[in-house]
Amino acid sequence: MQITAAVAHGPNEEFALTNVDLAQPRADEVVVEIRGVGLCHTDIAARDGVYGLPYPLVLGHEGSGVVVEVGSDVTSLSAGDEVAVSFSSCGRCRPCSNGLPAYCAEFTAENYIGSRPDGSSTISDGDSVVHGHFFGQSSFASHALVRESNAVKVDTDLDISLVGPLGCGIQTGAGAVMRSMACTAGSALVVLGGGPVGLAAVMGAVLRECSTIVVVEPLAARRDIATELGATHVIDPVGADLTAELSAIAEEGVDYVFDTTGRVDVINAAVAAAAQNATVGLVGVPSDFSVDLPVNIVGAMQRGLTIRGIVEGDSDPQTFIPELLEHHAAGRFPFDSLITTYPFSQINDAVAAQERGEVTKLVLVPDA
User: Is the full-model pTM beyond 0.90?
Assistant: First the structure.
């Protein structure tokens, strides 16, 4: 079928809205009409060549919409179902079998190579291949071809156009606190970075009943949002002695450090204020993938420090996205308050607005 997609043709180039062809769904695939798609820093990094994906390329990995066609073997979805689309996983490896699809042994092939894992294309422009299948979806488009396993059927009063960010950024932040680190009631948490992932962590920390929730963020507007969502303290890191400020807030140290910045200096300053047996969770991606986080071995031993990388908040989207929507329905997880919508045709204006820090979480919706 012919669809409209925002195609990236090279690093740092604007997206070009183009009519392209979407392949017919295989037996285990469905076609989703995209009603909304979150714009994430990962999409822009991929557009600009950080992940080494081939061009031309269709990105987008926080899609939501309505199923319009299903493959012959699909049993859990039907045309007309509303879905959120999340990352893809093989479903066969040991992590997938143990309920940890975010650590799928085939995660790169499933999400990051610009095609299906077998190398076949899902999008074309005449006789030319357009690379896609980004996070198993490539939802910067009017329609996306996804596997049954990474389309999550949802039942919500929320407009389906706003649900997409649960598929990646929001579930990453909330899941890091609620699942990966499993922050305990009464504990102290510091969140480094007040973007959508960090703010989702704040909402998760409120659900986990953390008593001290500190957000470190240079933008005043985001510090204000963090406070509205339940942060007990906010810190502007510009010119601040972060270690000293955190130590003044949590005299016995912070129990959990959650980093969304990928900045070694910021992480080290927070770790210096960590409590005994603290856990440090890392989701921030540095601009230079070769960067190491130096850790003093003896100091880590003496403090019983745990440092762990986190992917997608350790979530299984099929169960965690409905859980977050239940919290939203009960008024406990107002993630939609972070969202600003832009028409899909204005994707390049939306990217610019995000880069200027004018929006917190941006979602592209079909033009009226």
Answer: yes
